[in-house]
Design goal:
The complex is a heterodimer of chains A (384) and B (291). Chain A is an alpha/beta fold and 384 residues long. Chain A folds into 2 domains: 195 residues, 3-Layer(aba) Sandwich (Rossmann fold); 128 residues, Rossmann fold. Chain A contains 12 helices and 14 strands. The longest helix of chain A is centred in the N-terminal third of the chain and has 25 residues. Chain A starts with a helix and ends in a 6-residue tail after the last strand. Chain B is mainly alpha-helical and 291 residues long. Helix content of chain B is 74%, strand content 3%. In chain B, strands 1-2 form a two-stranded antiparallel sheet. In chain B, helix 5 packs across helix 6 and helix 10 packs across helix 11. Chain B is globular. The C terminus of chain B is likely disordered. Classes of the chains: A alpha/beta (384), B mainly alpha (291). At the A-B interface, helix 2, strand 7, helix 7, helix 8 and helix 9 of A face helix 1 and helix 10 of B.
Chain lengths: 384, 291
């Protein structure tokens, strides 16, 4: 057949209409949708891949157990490009789809701050992983945190370094983004009650190519321990190498990025002997062990918090939606707030009125490249 | 004093990387009068080629290095034929947009092939460095400085003492005149693209053991290298080298003595100052209106 204007027009119309028809047919097939904002490109893309793996493991388990509201659970992802504008755009794309009934936000506090106003407007529950304590104090009732906030990590790092390791003079190195600034502040505030003092508070901009000035400042400060809040693993890797090259071998206790899989791969032996607070530690509980087993069946990487929080988020959101028995956001929110003692991969979930689900941390040690569980420190939540 | 020496060494090391990439900018600018915004991606692609050959396929390091540079030469030629050549008679703007498009294409193709995970590439030396008096000398930084110096010397000899070098210079100075003298301008431009891709590749392979191999490594370096070329005087080889080294030293000292978080700010503050007070750069000549 020779194409003429009519057949061309018909073909064009079919081409334009096809995606919408396919989408519509899929929707009629019936699924309960959760939207997920995740870095697929940009510096945080490695952690994004782990986040998706964690969410997919939970999705499979939920669907195997009957799905959500009698339908299969579907996770719709949007790339946040590891930038704040990218995150806002990704969330608005998801929020514009009325059949998405809940969201998974970012593990990065700075992006959560950027998206929070739109999340308030969307008025649907958002599970997120950013650890800036301020995020659950914004008066936004839809935010539910699936990692312990930095007021806990600061307290645990300070208590462990000052009391267990007996080090009192602290050099704090932190990113100047929302996560790093809030973490550095939390650690600074927790030190006096543990007998420690800050001798150097050193911020740095993300994606720095050289940390020589930071390392030299630590060397000159007279510090006997380093506390750190690094956002990106490649920054951490460069810092760790230069730290050791310039002869600084101080004890080092840091936020979870210090002991995650990407950091271990990039920094290698330069991180040996360091301690991290970890929201996920495989040996911390039966639930953590179960997740570790499921994760290892899917990935060659070591299971860590980048995937465990999304695993818990999908599991708990599915549980809450089923408990609510409806897609009504307010009912799902109430079901989330009533979660008590759910044993997740990251620990026991008890949501307080602000939306914080976890209230403790594990301490782990990098023992020649293996992450070894030391202890879990749990704080009593004010559930109100 | 110890601190100053350590910072100076690191600053020169980082500056040498900027200088190498800036050299690629300058060579293409001289030959074509356009800025190649994919110059940083040349570095990134070469580093990933090294990961493929030296890490994944476990080739000997020197062989992988040689093969990666051959790969970069091919990329430079293809780049010339597809990105520059079809637009060579247009004004500079479509060519610049074309190089930006190529940069996005290279970054995303690498992302599709390798995924987002940064990779580790070891350096030439098993021993990471040594202590010289009060200064820790990172072998990789030392190698970068030595290679930059050698390439600059080689380039000087090539442009000043070989016929091909003189033909390239003639092409960059006046394409029409060069053509009237029997020089094949399109071949000269092809050689320039190949050489710039190889130089950018060397920079990427040298810096990869320090910054890790990632999709965004090219863009990070290229932005500073671009600033270095403006500071040095756009189109001037010596200016690119001095500009790159100056930028590395200024940002390292600025970070140490003023503020670490605003480290990148110092580099661009210097850039803005140059644009206001000496837009032709250190070595550039003042551009006068033609009568």
């Amino acid at each position: 057949m020779t194409p003429n204007r009519r057949t061309f027009a018909a073909g064009l119309a079919a081409g334009i209409a096809a995606p919408a028809l396919i989408r519509s047919a899929f929707a009629q097939g019936g699924s309960t949708k959760i939207g997920m904002v995740v870095p697929i490109t940009g510096p945080a893309a490695p952690s994004g891949a782990f986040a998706i793996t964690g969410a997919k493991i939970a999705q499979e388990a939920v669907n195997k157990a009957g799905g959500v509201l009698g339908k299969p659970l579907e996770i719709v992802t949007e790339d946040d490009q590891t930038t704040n504008p990218g995150a806002v755009l990704a969330f608005s794309k998801l929020a514009s789809q009325p059949d998405i009934i809940a969201f998974i936000g970012s593990i990065r506090s700075t992006q959560m701050h950027a998206m929070a106003p739109d999340m308030l407007k969307a008025a649907k529950p958002v599970a997120f992983g950013g650890t800036d304590p301020n995020l659950t104090k914004l008066g936004n009732p839809w935010l539910f945190r699936f990692r312990p906030n930095d007021s806990y990590s600061g307290k645990v790092i300070a208590a462990f370094g000052a009391k267990e390791l007996g080090k009192k003079k602290w050099a704090i190195v932190h990113s100047t983004d929302a996560f790093g600034t809030a973490g550095g502040k939390a650690l600074t505030e927790a030190l006096p009650e543990n007998g420690g003092a800050v001798v150097l508070d050193q911020g740095y901009a993300n994606q720095s190519q050289d940390f020589t000035p930071v390392v030299l400042a630590i060397r000159q400060s007279g510090a006997d321990i380093i506390g750190s809040y690094f956002t990106f693993e490649n920054d951490l890797g460069i810092f760790a190498r230069q730290l050791r090259q310039l002869g600084v071998n101080l004890p080092w206790v840091g936020s979870p990025s210090l002991v995650n899989a990407v950091a271990l791969q990039l920094a290698g032996p330069t991180l040996n002997g360091t301690y991290g607070v970890a929201d996920y530690a495989e040996e911390a509980s039966d639930a953590a062990r179960t997740f570790g087993k499921l994760f290892r069946a899917q990935s060659k990487a070591i299971p860590d918090n980048q995937s465990s929080w999304t695993y818990d988020a999908v599991t708990v959101l599915a549980m809450a939606i089923n408990k609510a028995g409806s897609t009504d956001p307010q009912k799902i929110r109430e079901a989330m707030l009533s979660v008590r003692g759910h044993q997740g991969a990251e620990g026991p979930y008890n949501f307080d009125k602000n939306g914080d689900g976890l209230h403790g941390y594990n301490i782990v040690k990098n023992d020649k490249g293996s992450i070894v569980f030391d202890k879990r420190i749990e704080f009593t939540p004010q559930l109100g | 004093m110890d601190l100053v020496l350590q910072l100076l060494f690191t600053g020169i090391g980082i500056g040498a990387v900027y200088a190498l990439v800036a050299l690629g900018f300058v060579l293409i600018f001289r030959a074509t009068n356009v800025v190649n915004f994919a110059q940083g991606e040349f570095s990134m692609v070469a580093a990933f080629l090294m990961v493929l050959l030296a890490v994944d396929l476990e080739w000997p390091y020197w062989l992988a290095f040689a093969a990666a540079l051959v790969g970069m030469a091919v990329l430079g030629a293809v780049f010339n034929l597809t990105v520059y050549y079809p637009l060579r008679h247009r004004t500079y703007l479509p060519v610049i947009i074309s190089t930006i498009g190529a940069s996005i294409f290279l970054a995303n193709t690498t992302l599709a092939l390798y995924g987002p995970q940064p990779r580790v590439l070891s350096g030439w030396f098993d021993n990471p460095g040594f202590t010289l008096g009060p200064v820790y000398v990172d072998n990789q930084y030392l190698l970068i400085i030595v290679v930059t110096a050698a390439l600059v010397a080689l380039q000087y000899w090539f442009f000043e003492h070989t016929l091909l070098g003189k033909k390239l210079q003639a092409t960059s100075q006046d394409k029409e005149m060069a053509s009237l003298l029997g020089i094949r301008v399109s071949t000269m431009i092809m050689i320039t693209f190949v050489y710039s891709a190889v130089i950018g590749g060397i920079a990427g392979i040298l810096v990869a053991p320090i910054l890790f191999v990632s999709i965004q490594m090219g863009a990070t370096i290229a932005l500073k290298a671009f600033a270095a070329t403006i500071i040095g005087g756009f189109g001037d080889v010596a200016g690119a080298i001095i500009g790159g080294l100056a930028l590395g030293v200024i940002e390292t000292f600025g970070a140490a003595y003023v503020s670490v978080p605003y480290k990148d700010g110092f580099a661009f503050l210097v850039l803005v100052a140059f644009l206001i007070f000496r837009p032709q750069g250190i070595f550039g000549e003042r551009v006068a209106e033609k009568a």
